[in-house]
Every structure is written in C-alpha cells, then in structure tokens.
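Subject: Re: docking follow-up (orotidine-5'-monophosphate)

Dear J.,

Thanks for your patience while I sorted out the input files. As discussed at Tuesday's group meeting, I've set up the holo structure prediction with orotidine-5'-monophosphate included as the bound ligand rather than trying to dock it afterwards. The sequence and the ligand SMILES I used are pasted below, so you can double-check that they match what you have on your end before we go further.
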Amino acid sequence: MTSPRFAQAVTERTLSLNTRLCVGLDPRLGEYRDVAALRQHTLDVLEASAPYAACVKPQLAFFEALGLPGFTLLEEVCAAARTLGLPVLLDGKRGDIGTTAAAYAAGWLSGPHAGDALTVNPFLGFQTLTPFVQAARENGGAIFVLVKTSNPDQQDVQGQGVSERVAVELARLGAEESLEPGQYASVGAVVGATHPADLATFRNLMPRALLLLPGLGAQGAKAGDLAGAFHSGGTGALASASRAVQYAQGLDVGAAREAAKGLRDELNAALGV
Ligand SMILES: O=C(O)c1cc(=O)[nH]c(=O)n1[C@@H]1O[C@H](COP(=O)(O)O)[C@@H](O)[C@H]1O
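The structure tokens for the complex came back this morning:
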C-alpha cells in the first residue's frame, strides 16, 4: 500500500492555499455553439478557478456524452490540472461486480484517462468495492463512495439506515490504513452538502475519511452550513460546486473566477480559518 497521495495533496493544497472548494466541471453541450467552444471554455474555467480550488472534479457523464472528442478533452483537462497542481477527482459513480469492477478501477484509476480519484457506487455490495480500494491504494489514489447523495429522493434507497451502514464500512476500510495524525485514508465518502444537519454525524462515523460535499450553489446548499463536516483547522472535507462556478454568469470566465473565489471565502468565513 502506498501512502494516500490524493488525500495528502488535497490536504496540503487546502492548508497552503486556504481552500476547501472542489470545482466541478460539468460541460453541457447545450450551452455552446460547438464542441470547440465547450473545450476552450472548460479549459479556461479550470485555469481561472484553480487558485481557489483544492481539487477539480470532472463529471464523466458530460465528457462521455461527447464521444471521442470528450475523451480527448478529458485527457486535456487532466493534463492541464496537473500542470496547475490540482488533484483530479473523476466523478463517474462506478460500481459493478467482480471483474467488471476491476476493469472500471483499472480504467479510471490507472488507465490512459485516469484521474487521481474516482467516485464509486456501493449499491452492488461491499465486496464490489474491493477492486476500487485496491487500485486506489496501489496508486496512492482515492475513491469517494456514495454514502448519502445530495438529491432529495436519495431517501427512497439510502434511507432506513443504509447510509449509516455504508459509512461504518468505509470507516472500517479507513482503519486498515496506517496513517500519520492529520492524514486521511484513500477511502473517502460522498455526503451531500444539502444535508447540513447530518454532516457532523457522518464526520464522526468516518473520522479518517475525506468527505466530498456536493450540492453547493445550484442545488441550494450554503457554504455557511457545512462546518459540521470539517475537523478543527478546516481539513477533512471538500465542498463541491459545478454550475455555480462554470456557469456563474453564462459563459463569463471572469464571473466563474469570482464565483470560485467567493465560495472559497464563504467556506473559510464559516470555519473561521
Ligand atoms: O459525486 C458527486 O459529485 C455528486 C454526488 C451527489 O450526491 N450529488 C451530486 O450532485 N454529485 C455531482 O456533483 C455535481 C453537482 O453539480 P452542481 O449541482 O452543478 O454543483 C454533478 O456532477 C453531480 O453528478
């Protein structure tokens, strides 16, 4: 097992740049006149928001929807992020049985389009997480497993204690890793920023997991409500916004930069850091 490089890089960036913001890239073809314009704007938003971001989270669905040009753009985004020093968390929410899970893990955590981390769906059972956990640990990468998603109807499937059961399993996986104080495991968790009342509970259930908190901005979550997800000093969680940055004011890249800066500042103000 190598040291959890992704978690470490994010934490170092959080502390050195004083930011807990994850910038999501969800490039929607309908916003642009063509793929070339989408490509340029996506790369411009990445560069403009990078100084305020602890990591970047490309949503694979929007790249896959473009076909081959989408995969080319994804490679460009990953390369640009690395140049900017930004860790890349691919949002794919993958999950499947046995060898298929292994193929997803190989593809997205070590293949040609790989990121540093990947979101993973645990619905098929805890054993199906194993190839993802192994790949993350072998590469020093990370996975972020869905615990309680940001959408209101998550309750249909994730209610009745299911989210808590997943959290307990992720805590068990995290405890397998030998970590220095202040380090986070290669197994993280997704907990919607739209559930502020539950954040402290999940923080306590998974003390060594980095928490990804999507839903900031467009889904109504407020930076001021997220303190329960963080450890003292403002580490341990990443609040994520996609549309609220990328399309803050249409395709205005300056507005995207200001939106990222504003969210970073609001998060810091709420945490007193
Ligand atoms: O894993 C995610 O990032 C994720 C989990 C979740 O519970 N809710 C959620 O919205 N997301 C993703 O985060 C992004 C949210 O986009 P905005 O609502 O525009 O910020 C989308 O790419 C979603 O797929």
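A couple of observations from a first look. The pocket of orotidine-5'-monophosphate is lined by residues 24, 26, 59, 91, 119, 149-150, 190, 192, 214-215, 217-219, 240-244 (CB under 6 Å). Strands lie at 21-25, 55-58, 89-94, 117-120, 142-148, 187-191, 211-214, 237-241.

Let me know if you'd like me to rerun anything.

Best regards,
T.
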